[in-house]
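Problem: given the chain below (68 residues), write out its structure.
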Amino acid sequence: MATRDRRLAEFNGNGAPPPDQAVQVLCEDQSGTYQLPFACRLVDGQWRNIESVGALQATVVRSRLPRI
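Solution.
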């Protein structure tokens, strides 16, 4: 549980990102939480990989602006 809480704290989770803003996302499944290795955008309520434009098949629980 500490790892999940730590990961959640690393992401702001302050609502949806601005339209067409590329962000890092934190996802969660039955195995735990994980950060995707590519940036994503929220387009019409659906998360998409900015490179392939494919829809994510994951549950996004938080997002944040990319860290430089």
